[in-house]
């Protein structure tokens, strides 16, 4: 499917930039338009592929191009104040050629975490196409303010979008790597997973006709109903067979072909299990997911209906969902992969902890206010007693 991607804040911009690179490399055609919004001028200048005219600097009057320094309330305020400038960039997008918006942001900082929900709300008021969010959770070692920002932003973002796709940096960081080097790999992981998924609904007319191609309405239906989504992925290298491989599916039923078919089916079923039970973009219990979409991609001679059907059935049993869709995404690449979108997941330990943090912060705010009121009263009383000042 074709997306208009808007990266908000530094992480958001870098990830959208990376999606453009993925699009060029794989010819997937999912990024119909790309916009970056930030309050930090240097971050906007550091982007590689997003067109200059689609880079929007907001909050100039307030922060002079230096970013908001992880102040997510300020991030939200400047987004509201300068929403017209963002809209101007979006006006230049041929939105009639777009299936959905994808607003991408890191939830731990100030600009993206504050601004992305504001933009999502704005877009939903104006357009009828779905507005999805891709929210990146900070590592737990980044510090309290990042966690607190994420806790607050998450609650607002999930409410404003049609579905919030989540990637948790915390479960993907590698030890012993520089932060920047680590992000390079993490961002590649992000674009590959979400790229395969959204690319599935974008099989062109001239390309090989799959047995059951996923189309963009199936992605939209899986994401409809809101909530939080996570993506699982697993792949296996195969040999690209440019000879008679494709034909072998249609030729006689000698023993060799039966063996091939059985191998193909088995490969698919185990890839589906690996994808669902391995590391998800947001780790969670897959049981209880409301909807799911299974996308099997690879050379068409390595895809078959039986494998996908089995994988789909297995997912139905594991999730308990009655709404599991599945299909092919034929691509001439030397690997077969399974990507699984699990939508409306509820049993997510990381989100429960974040909600706890938000509640505690709320309590703390009351404590702090109560404390400062007490102090004030004491000061007044002290004043009345005419005690010697301590300092
Ligand atoms: N996956 C990924 N996460 C990133 C990347 N850069 C930053 N992050 C994460 O995103 C969070 C927010 O950082 P930024 O995007 O730099 O913040 P911002 O939105 O620009 O906001 P301010 O800098 O406070 O104005 C961080 O806490 C990190 O967890 C990146 O390249 N990839
Ligand atoms: Mg920044």
UniProtKB/TrEMBL annotation:
Transmembrane segments: none annotated. It is found in: Cytoplasm. The keyword GTP-binding applies. One of its GO terms (biological process) is regulation of cell shape. GO terms for cellular component: cell division site; cytoplasm; microtubule. Pfam families: CetZ_C (PF21011), Tubulin (PF00091). CDD domains: CetZ_tubulin-like. Residues 351-382 form a coiled coil. Residues 2-195 form the Tubulin/FtsZ GTPase domain. SUPFAM superfamilies: Tubulin nucleotide-binding domain-like. GTP binds at residues 10-14, 110-112, 142, 169, 187. GO terms for molecular function: GTP binding; GTPase activity. Keywords: Cell cycle, Cell division, Cell shape, Coiled coil, Cytoplasm, GTP-binding, Nucleotide-binding. Belongs to the CetZ family. Involved in cell shape control. This is Tubulin-like protein CetZ. The lineage of its organism: Archaea, Methanobacteriati, Methanobacteriota, Stenosarchaea group, Halobacteria.
